[in-house]
Write a structure and sequence with these properties.
Layout (H helix, E strand, L loop, with lengths): L8 H17 L19 E7 L6 E12 L5 E9 L7 E7 L3 E6 L5 E5 L5 E10 L3 E7 L3 E12 L10 E2 L5 E4 L1
Antiparallel strand pairs: 1-4, 2-3, 2-9, 4-9, 5-8, 5-11, 6-7, 6-10, 7-9
């Protein structure tokens, strides 16, 4: 008579696991697919100049004076400065970011120097204005953007201090996301 082989309890568990795992992989109720992922980092907040601050054409008088351009592009002339013809305009900046986000505007705190393009003569801007006004949380990005207008006051010397020619310079305005 042939001897009966018995299966050990450990072998029985392994056989059941093998049978069970083989059956579950072949069930008609399961499927697998590969998914793909995409992520894009965007600037949360940005600003760019859309028009330059332009004091236009003018002539200094014997005592000099001041030219003021408001954020609404209106011009005032003080002292002995004669306003010429041509266009003047406030600067404008396009600020964009999250819808309804507030932000702060910081105008230059130090004087900005404009230099004559071919001489060593200079003029100074020492007053700045903006709409919306500078300060913490004064800007609001309705629909995700806002245009900020910037004006300033230019100090003009006499003709010796500021000879005929073009004067240029640059400045920095900070827009901080709140």
């Amino acid at each position: 008579m042939a001897a009966k082989k018995s299966i050990s309890p450990c072998g029985l568990v392994l056989m059941l696991l093998f049978i069970t795992s083989g059956l579950s992989a072949q069930t008609p109720y399961e499927a697998s697919a590969t998914g793909h992922v995409i992520a894009e980092i965007i600037p949360v907040f940005s600003a760019s100049e859309t028009s330059q601050l332009n004091f236009g054409r003018f002539a200094p008088g014997p005592q000099g004076g001041k030219i003021i351009i408001t954020p609404q592009s209106t011009i005032s002339v003080l002292g002995s400065v004669y306003k010429g013809t041509g266009s003047v305009n406030a600067a404008s900046f396009y600020v964009s970011g999250d819808v309804d986000a507030s932000y702060s505007i910081a105008l230059p705190s130090d004087p900005v120097i404009l230099k004559h393009t071919s001489e060593t003569k200079t003029m100074i801007i020492d007053e700045w204005y903006s709409d919306p006004a500078p300060g913490l949380g004064t800007g609001m990005l309705q629909n995700g953007f806002q245009v900020v207008f910037v004006g300033a006051a230019l100090n003009v010397g006499n003709l010796y201090d500021n000879p005929v020619g073009v004067y240029t310079g640059s400045y920095t305005i900070r827009f901080d996301f709140n």
